[in-house]
Fold these 2 entries.
Entry 1:
Amino acid sequence: MTRILAIGECMVEMAPTDVAGTYKMGFAGDTMNTAWYLRRLLGTDHQVDYFSAVGTDSASDQMLDFLEEASIGTDHIARSPNWTVGLYIIQLNEGERSFSYWRGQSAARTLAQDDTLLENALMGADVAFFSGITVAILPKGDRDRFLAILAAFKAAGGTVVFDPNLRPKLWKSKEDMTSAIMQAAAVSSISLPSHEDEAEWFGDTDSLATAARYAKAGARTVLVKNGPAEILIHADNTVTTLSPEKIAAVVDTTAAGDSFNAGYLAAIVQGASEMEAAAAGAVLAGKVIRSRGALVAKAT
Ligand code: ADP
């Protein structure tokens, strides 16, 4: 049995319905989306847990119910009466989606306050999965300790998987973001960046430059996603590429990267080669972007 611990922030999502002015409540967030797809792809002989923090209000209760219904383990999610969960609203304006976020009171920002909680959650885990958003929401001191715990987990034989998921709005400055992202990359065994974002913030000229930077930081495997363009796989000092299937009817690219990560990781856990796993990631992401929303049940 493989036990995967995904670490980060899940939020309440208010998504517009077909009736103008009305919204449907759901739950989403990059690391949770990946956990959700992993849970659906992996059989019951594997375990997928989520590590975060929530409040004690009813929105937090509903979030935990949602995770439990999805069979994602919630035993290590801390609860605090002083906080709640983050929220975002999706607005549609002539077909264009825009997002407004309320995450200042999100308990997830405190997830690394107490080292022992994360250390306990990692006990018996084989894989820890986190993202650039996970580190962006942490205060600097907590972030440093959080990354030190992941480094120790990796040193003890665990696999640390990181999606940089660059979100400049969550950082004070470009320098804060890029230095923290590379600090996180340094504790990771597998890095799963998306070239377009990386090119913008790190100035990478191509996917190979992105892969080389993450490999140099310490990852043994780097997969560089690039929307519809070819995926670059840098593993065991060799570089290969794979073209995702062309999709004419892209409906919504939300969670393309998150679902790709899940398809890839589930395949790796089940013994696939890097190439097979990248293909599995691309197939799942390809199905997810043919439908609206982050969590597409019929894609799995
Ligand atoms: P992110 O959501 O992190 O920005 P990408 O946009 O790079 O990630 O997409 C992740 C994966 O989703 C790609 O590697 C590819 O497999 C698939 N994908 C995304 N957009 C498309 C598209 N337009 N056509 C086909 N596949 C796509």
Entry 2:
Amino acid sequence: MSSMEIHQEQSSGSAKIGSNRPLNKTLHVVIVGAGLGGLACAIACRRAKQPCDVTVVERVPEMIAIGSGIHIPPNACRVMQHFGLVEQLKSAGGYVVQDFTLRRYKDGNIIVEKPLGERVKREYGADWIAIHRGDYQNVLLDAAQRKGARIMTDTEVVDIEQGVDESEGRQIVVLKDGRRIDADVVIGADGLWSSMREFVLGRPMPPVETGDLAYRGTFTRDQLKSFHDPRIDGLIEKSNVQVWLGPSRHAVFYPLRNKTEFNLVLLVADDLPEGVRTAQGSLEEMGKCFDGWDPTLTRIISCLNSALKWKLLHFKELDKWTKGPVALLGDASHPTLPYQGQGAAMAVEDGAILGVLLTRLQERNLSLSPKARNGQLTSLLQLYERLRKQRTEINVSGAVLTREFYHLHDGDAQQERDSELSKLPAAKWQ
Ligand code: FAD
């Protein structure tokens, strides 16, 4: 029997909190946000011998395949292997990236070509996959639903009530339409602008501007073919990621959906006023950022038909990720510059680990005393935070270092970088 109850009453008096739900041996986990991290957590909580009850609450009305490309590096791909989803990802257009090529901005000359493909699989035990973000999310959504997670779309969480006496052990998830959901554990997987983060920290804590912004988009094979440029035609057929490195900016290009679509991300200095998250720029302004760059790249850039600017934000490190049996994951707790292609990968790892910890606790005779159960869950989520914080922090600071490395201006440091990179024997790449 499901332990979930959704109350229709609008009142929120603390005396009512969880008052009509008996404690159950099965944990009810409510996940706020059906992004990649939230869905990975849902799958992990459902795939154990004794699965948790899982409700994922997502505010968008429909899960449609929007967005552009994303990498699933081998650490995240191992989670997908564990879930048994790698073949589905490949059927959905995901492919194994064969090489990662760094190029000089002026002429597109190759600085180094890093082999991925078989080498990554051999060394890390999983593939490095590139895929359309919407296709990735659909594979996870489908798996979560098949495993029995409830997905409530068009539903926004506005608050959590933990009760006057924390030993009571119940969390009430308050929805915008006034409905209330009883939960044992709440996972805030609600992304960069998380409201759950404010709940956990007890104060607003907006992410910090990094000084960079991204333009990104996809376009078709026909658009690229129309140039009749042999260099572009050569790039179209490769299952590679191409990166042009230049002063204070770089560009990333790779195919999607069986080379019928192509992804381009341009990372440049942020010129938006403080506090502005996104703004429509002009195609001309965007093109100007790459004046004097490799003509192959500037042709590819001319395929973009929108110049939406996305400010890139991050955190150094949050004081805490948990409050009693409520925890944050993914961009809600450790947003990052995307320069290591690890933001979603870290969110997926968070979700997988939470699922393992919660289901293991449940298998080991979960206490039926509300106070003891609350204590067990609180300690478990603190353990999750200790396990994850250092690793995610290394990624956030590593992405900042990668920016410095990628964005060097022409000069001694840049020449040294390029010369060292070009001397690296392929097998020594980390
Ligand atoms: P999100 O994907 O943001 O999901 C949060 C969800 O919560 C959303 O669906 C939202 O609608 C929902 N939500 C929010 N508030 C509420 C509420 N109150 N109630 C209900 N629902 C709510 N990462 C990689 O691993 N590889 C890459 O190649 C990569 N490339 C990137 C390129 C760019 C340009 C950028 C900007 C990022 C990139 N990232 C990449 C990072 C990655 O996109 C994020 O780290 C990842 O999407 C975070 O996942 P999440 O599940 O934490 O949050």
